[in-house]
Amino acid sequence: MQATSPHQPPAMQWIEGGEFQMGSEQHYPEERPRQIKQVNGFWMDVTPVTNRQFAEFVSATGYLTEAEKKPCAADFPDVDPALLVPGALVFRSPAAGSQPRDYRDWWFYVAGACWHRPDGIQSLTPDDADKPVVQVAWQDALAYARWAGKTLPTEAEWEYAARGGHDGLPYAWGNEFQPEGKLMANTWQGNFPFSGQPGQGRYFATSPVAAFPANDYGLYDMIGNVWEWTLDTWQPDHSAPARTCCLATRPTGVERQKVVKGGSYLCAPNYCRRYRPAARHPQTTDSATSHIGFRCIRHR
Asked: How far apart are alpha carbons 107 and 103 in whole angstroms?
């Protein structure tokens, strides 16, 4: 377990720096090669930033997220200007019995979708206060972090913290995805993209933070629930270009991408096994989706 400090910030955990094995030789090509990395110590949010916390930021600053702004016509030259309305990408599970072919059959750009209306229809309720905020683009996450006197983690810092001291092991908790059948994270249960019946530990959507066990550094939801933004610009430097995953990238002329980590509630054994510390994926900085959030860090 990580030691605490008399100067511990609220809801943050001190992560002692050290050396670790970053990446994996056993899974997706973009995770290779495994490398030895050194990180310095830092404070990390115990959970992803929640709707309650993000609402406090918006209330204090009047901040408008990317999803709440009208898309720039210059970025979408082939799109009817009448269709350029504020919105974001929303996951919708296909109807039972249908035959979806790829992510375009379950990801949709929805007008009006934003952080306080994640599906574009229903506004947040008090029951959603402790769920991770979603529909935040990279710029939105960074703006919150700066307001809070923090920053976003690098990919190496994020992965080091997610491993919780289990260096070189596939999962944040050890060698098995579900040790003794126990659900360790909010990941898809069943045949993705078809949702089944909710039950104990089964959400098919975001879950309240800390609904699953913390890792050995006392951090919750490092795996599953929502992907998390990092500071790092995407480079396929672990190997060849990444294959398409459960993530959908909004069509845009902007090529700048950042690394997201941790997987989400949409990761499933039959489709996207990115519910591991080593897993990584690119995402364009202006993309807001219903399964990407973030958490912050602070250095000494």
From this structure: 6
**Could you tell me the CATH number of the domain that includes residue 79?**
3.90.1580.10
Taking the C-alpha atoms of residue 67 and residue 244, their distance in angstroms, rounded to an integer, is 23
Task: Determine the structural domain holding residue 295 and report its residue range.
Answer: 1-300
Which residues, other chains included, contact 109 with Cβ-Cβ below 8 Å and sequence gap of 6+?
87, 88, 89, 90, 250
Kindly give, in sequence order, each residue whose CB lies less than 8 Å from that of residue 90, ignoring residues fewer than 6 positions away: 107, 108, 109, 110, 113, 118, 119, 120, 289, 290
Segment 27-38 shows an average pLDDT of 91
Q: Is the previous residue joined to 94 through a cis bond, with omega within 30 degrees of 0?
A: no
Q: Domain count of the chain?
A: 1
Residue 295: CB partners within 8 Å, gap ≥ 6? 44, 45, 47, 48, 49, 153, 228
The predicted model scores a pTM of 0.89
Instruction: Spell 243-282 as b/e; 16+ CB within 10 A means b.
Output: eebbbbbbeeeeeebbbbbbbbbbbbeeebbbbbbbbbbb
Instruction: Fill in the amino acid letter for 278.
Output: A
H-run or E-run covering 109: strand 107-111
Share of the chain above pLDDT 70, in %: 90
